[in-house]
## 1
Amino acid sequence: MQAVILANGEFPKSKKCLDILQNAPFLIACDGAVISLHALQFKPSVVIGDLDSIDSHLKALYNPICVSEQNSNDLSKAFFYALNRGCDDFIFLGLNGKREDHALANTFLLLEYFKFCKKIQAISDYGLFRVLETPFTLPSFKGEQ
């Protein structure tokens, strides 16, 4: 089963990313990411995190899952929540922007998450990252970026 996890970084605006949000079979918002989803009238399946970023109005609307422990970030809380519900194919959106330390940490977390599932992609308005198992041959052509 596929899960789309929206982190609270730069909200994606590209058609591809918005289509992913619109058609997500299981959409998880990491804490404050629900603010942008709500503003654009997307309805997440689940809102999860330590809930330090959303107000009481959104808490009442979405009945979020509070995971107050501080040994992991909201992205990890969302990932393991989905993993425990049978998800093994993940698309992450909103990993970059706002804070560079969060963007870097989120990118490295993808390598850890890959140990637990079959497919991971991080997609933004600027490109796509996939974690690949080695050995792997990536077909390309001269000049491709």
## 2
Amino acid sequence: MIYATFPDRQAALALGRDLVEQGLAGCVNVLPSMTSIYVWKGETETAEEAVLIAKLARAGADRAVAHIVANHPYETPAVLVVPVVGGSSDYLNWVADGTRHA
């Protein structure tokens, strides 16, 4: 699973759709608004951002991360691979099937 933040919902939706259409993710969820607090270039910042959660097979995570980073509007995007240690076997198989052709 990949967790990534975006400056707005539209940017997250566009990249999420791209991940699914290219077979890099079986499913993407976009959470439209959250508040982030972080230090950037020596200044504490607060920003409203959107969250993208991509479900994919572990084998495709590196390709998906590279695609997100290459097409992301941020200079240093937050893109994290989060290991999935279990879940519904039917759902996990469905995700794996959806990303096999990538």
